[in-house]
Design a protein that fits this description.
412 residues; mainly alpha; Glycosyltransferase; two-stranded antiparallel sheet; two-stranded antiparallel ribbon
């Protein structure tokens, strides 16, 4: 894919930290969001760069015509008749991503169970259901409205994708607040989906169950400041901890209170997993560095209000030096890239500039004709790919849709 690139290494081409009213972009769901499409990929200096390049090209062409061995006027005229394809603009990149992820959402809609006791679900695993609901919301779709919204047929309201999904997930919430058929990782993803949905749909039942889900996360924090797979405050690891942090931050953004002490203890635990006081990298259950846990640790500190933590620069250098490949990259490919794209986006500058084009082009090239994604050959995530391919398809959609930044949890 051709695109205009800024050659200044440290220029920050990611969206501004404070959204500005630069234009309102509508989407099929009917939701409007303030979005500065240019700033997603390039800084304001790019048009000036383009003009400079155009002038340089004109001067070079004229100079070549004056050289003794330069092309003749007839040849130059013939060459002008061949019009090369225009470079893909910033808006063009966003539209290409939207086209691909819209196809993915059509695929996911077709796989949702529409009738029976499991209506509204894609899986009995609430993590997969949460990820899929987030995928729709990441494109700006909201419950009850738009392309995937509720419809009326013969006077009867037929619920849309998000309405069905919300109803199903709320039906699985236990009196304790636990929204999971197994682990806290599942609960964290389900809670994140409910928190993001609550920001769009202030349903009293949704609010009540979201509050209980958040209270459970707070109660299950270990003395060290992290979380583990069981809903009990006894142990911790980075994999489960990062998901609770993202869920807590999303709920807090939506107006659900979270004790400051909970965040402070989480900061302490995440910092303890760094290889040293200046990094690089974060480990799984203690000091170390790994391709999955390093972006998880980076994003955790960023979301917890420590984007300037001295452990992060070396950790970001470590992360962005990892290969982006299919196969040959991270063994837990989608888990790694789900957190890595957010961590580099939050960091901005050279980290975002160097990372996101490689990830974007790789994922766009691997989408299947039906709109779905699989996992790379030999991936450790192979066991997560059910026949409906919900996990890789929802994850790829979320990774790509960071360009649209509709979900508050994924914004700066």
């Amino acid at each position: 894919m051709n695109e205009t690139r800024n050659t200044t290494a440290d220029a920050d081409t990611s969206p501004p930290r404070q959204r500005e009213d630069v234009g309102r972009i509508s989407n099929p769901s009917g939701l409007h969001e303030r979005t500065d499409w240019k700033s997603v990929l390039h800084p304001p200096r790019v048009p000036r760069l383009r003009v400079g390049l155009m002038i340089a090209a004109i001067v070079l062409a004229a100079w070549m015509l004056l050289l003794p061995g330069g092309p003749r006027r007839e040849e130059a005229a013939q060459a002008q008749e061949v019009k090369p394809a225009a470079p893909l603009t910033e808006l063009g990149i966003v539209e290409e991503v939207r086209k691909k992820t819209d196809k993915a959402l059509d695929y996911l809609e077709s796989k949702q169970i529409k009738e029976g006791a499991e209506a509204g679900s894609w899986s009995t695993n609430q993590a997969f259901n949460g990820l899929t609901l987030l995928a729709f919301m990441s494109a700006g779709h909201v419950p009850g409205r738009g392309k995937y919204g509720d419809i009326i047929e013969k006077g009867v309201v037929k619920p849309g994708v998000l309405t069905r999904g919300k109803k199903y997930m709320l039906s699985k919430a236990q009196p304790t607040g636990y929204v999971s058929s197994g682990t806290m990782y599942e609960h964290g993803l389900a809670t994140l989906a409910l928190a993001e949905m609550y920001g769009m749909d202030p349903d009293p039942d949704l609010e009540d169950k979201l509050r209980k889900a958040i209270e459970l996360i707070v109660k299950c924090q270990s003395p060290a400041g992290g979380w583990r797979y069981s809903p009990a405050p006894v142990d911790q690891d980075m994999s489960v901890t990062v998901m609770q942090i993202v869920a807590l931050r999303a709920a807090n953004n939506a107006g659900i209170p979270v004790p400051e002490k909970t965040f402070q203890n989480a900061v302490r635990y995440v910092q303890s997993c760094a290889t040293g006081p200046k990094g690089p990298g974060f480990g799984y259950a203690g000091a170390g560095a790994g391709p999955q846990t390093t972006p998880a640790g980076i994003l955790s500190l960023q979301l917890l209000g420590h984007p300037e933590d001295e452990r992060l620069p070396a950790s970001l250098d470590y992360l962005t030096a990892l290969p982006v490949a299919w196969p040959g990259g991270a063994q837990y490919f989608f888990y790694h890239h789900y957190y890595a794209i957010q961590a580099t986006y939050q960091a901005g500058g050279k980290y975002w500039n160097g990372w996101h084009p490689k990830v974007r082009e790789l994922l766009l090239s691997k989408q299947g004709p039906d709109g779905s994604w699989d996992v790379p050959p030999g991936s450790s995530e192979a066991g997560l790919v059910q026949p409906n391919k919900v996990y890789p398809t929802a994850m790829a959609t979320l990774i790509l849709n960071i360009y649209l930044h509709y979900l508050p949890a994924y914004q700066r």
